[in-house]
Design a protein that fits this description.
Helix content is 23%, strand content 25%. With 498 residues, it is of the alpha+beta class. Strand 3 and strand 4 form a beta hairpin. A nine-stranded antiparallel β-sheet has the order 4-3-2-1-9-8-7-6-5, with no helix packed on it.
Length: 498
């Protein structure tokens, strides 16, 4: 599943802190002959003793400019780049699929690009790319021996063997790090844990929160409280932002399909505590950003991962209902589904079950708090509750209830699965769920400063997976890797080694 691969040394799919300041790029007149930067560029990201080779292939002669990134050591080839900008001394580009940004200065002889790579959830890393004569091919991943499709009841025994090395390294009991896995297949549930966590432990789910925000939007559409094509400006307090002088403006659907053109994070986000970066970004700051930035829609909408955009969507929906994001999720989703162990702000009882988070090298990491951007990543939950949520995605037609919210939920879930735009790499986006086109499956992952997660469901084959890990993705994408490994075991194909 190349579409679900991510650069392992830097984070992805997460509600993230603001990036460190990028190197200042001189911006003289555009390159007279951009073909001077056409070619193959190779370098490596390094963190600790780990190294990950990155290859970027640029062709400025193509119309539009052609750019792809290869993560050679992961076998992730041809990941599309966008927003490629070159000047006489600098180049920058985005890699939306992995939420990455590369910015660099160009050597006087155009032989090297010296810059930084930043990616959701991680600090900037130095990245120097040197021009190459020929492109390298991907390193072939190693696989555990194939076996017939594993029944959910036998999955834990299989994973006990597959995870032997991990159990003596990143999941060793003395580290305090652990993973809780939940799987449901044809109505049969299994929840089990490894390392320093328990099946009933509470975790931050990071950007999987975005799928809840998308479902709240679908609920409110079904209840005729909003329209998908309604301008977000109309939901905000009067006078927050003026209408564009001309042209289209950002709608609720643009935010949910992440094509609004809004940046990944607002430029006025300056946390007092970088270990809790969203805690003091309130509605006043968000509205100030919008007043300055405006809500004009970009001319050519394309997918661009944005915590700001989905956070704004959650705040706007709460504004329309004159409530908080937390209360809205509770009313529209958690109560109808009976998800009592899921919340933004934990009760004392749930707080006792919240496991300690860990950053790179297993360093302790505090939990994150959210205000105005809660819709991007604020929810905490358990494997059991998340299986309830995923079972509802698999079988919305079986849901019942007498409240308005319970009655509209089946149709809202179905609407939240409708694809709304292309992501690239064989994927589309629904209302924040990513859809793998050739398989008809859905997924999302997440990360905060001390947690990472992975959710996946297959409506046709009737199974779903949740992986909750109390370490962030600075050291790799273990939650994603484990989730994809479980999919491979359940479907009887070769399983990438953990």
């Amino acid at each position: 599943m190349r579409a679900a691969l991510f650069l392992a040394l830097v984070a992805c799919g997460s509600a993230t802190p603001p990036p460190a300041p990028a190197p200042k790029l001189v911006a003289p007149a555009p390159v007279a002959k951009p073909a001077a930067l056409t070619g193959i560029w190779l370098g490596a990201l390094k963190t600790g003793s780990a190294e990950l080779r990155v290859q970027i292939r640029l062709d400025f002669a193509a119309t539009p400019t052609s750019c792809v990134l290869d993560s050679l050591d992961q076998g992730a080839m041809g990941v599309p780049c966008t927003n490629v900008v070159a000047t006489a001394t600098a180049v920058s580009l985005d890699v939306p699929l992995v939420k990455g940004v590369f910015k660099a200065t160009v050597a006087s002889d155009a032989s090297t690009l010296t810059g930084t790579w930043s990616q959701a959830g991680s600090p900037e890393l130095p990245l120097v790319l040197a021009r190459q004569a020929t492109a390298l091919e991907a390193k072939k991943p190693s696989f555990d021996p194939a076996m017939p499709a594993v029944d959910v009841g036998k999955l834990q025994a299989v994973l006990d063997d597959d995870l032997k090395k991990a159990l003596t390294a990143q999941l060793a009991p003395m580290t305090g790090v652990g993973v809780t896995i939940g799987v449901v297949e044809h109505g049969v549930r299994k929840i089990f844990s490894y390392g320093g966590v328990k099946p009933e432990s509470v975790f931050e789910i990071g950007s999987i929160t975005k799928t809840f925000t998308g479902l709240v939007l679908a609920q409110m559409v079904e209840q005729k409280k909003v329209k998908l094509d309604e301008p977000v400006r109309a939901l905000l307090p009067g006078g927050t932002v003026t209408a564009p002088a001309s042209g289209a403006e950002v709608t609720l659907l643009d935010l949910a399909a992440q094509r609004s053109g809004l940046p990944r994070l607002p430029d006025n986000m300056k946390p007092a505590d970088v270990t809790n970066p969203y805690a003091d970004y309130d509605a006043k700051a968000l509205y100030a950003f919008l007043a300055n930035h405006g809500v004009a829609m970009i001319d050519k909408p394309v997918f661009g991962y944005s915590n700001l955009g989905v956070g704004l969507l959650g705040q706007a929906l709460a504004d329309r209902m004159r409530t908080t994001y937390e209360a809205l999720v509770q009313k529209e989703i958690l109560v109808p589904l009976g998800m009592r162990d899921t919340a933004v702000k934990l009760t004392p009882a749930l707080a006792k079950r919240l496991v300690a988070g860990h950053a790179a090298g297993n360093a302790p990491q505090r939990a994150w708090d959210f205000q105005a951007l809660a819709g991007a990543g604020a929810i905490r939950s358990t494997a059991a509750d998340m299986l309830t949520y995923l079972e509802a995605q698999l079988h919305p037609d079986t849901l019942t209830g007498k409240t308005v919210e319970a009655k509209t939920l089946p149709a809202a879930i179905a609407a939240s699965h409708e694809v709304r735009g292309e992501v690239g790499g064989g994927m589309h986006i629904a209302l924040n769920w990513f859809h793998i086109d050739d398989k008809g499956t859905f997924w999302h992952n997440g990360a905060t400063g001390g947690f990472s997660s992975y959710a996946y469901f297959d409506p046709a084959k009737d199974y779903a997976i949740i992986v909750l890990f109390n370490r962030s993705i600075d050291d790799g994408t273990f939650a994603d890797d484990l989730g994809k490994h479980i999919v491979q075991r359940l479907t009887g194909v070769e399983a990438a080694s953990l």
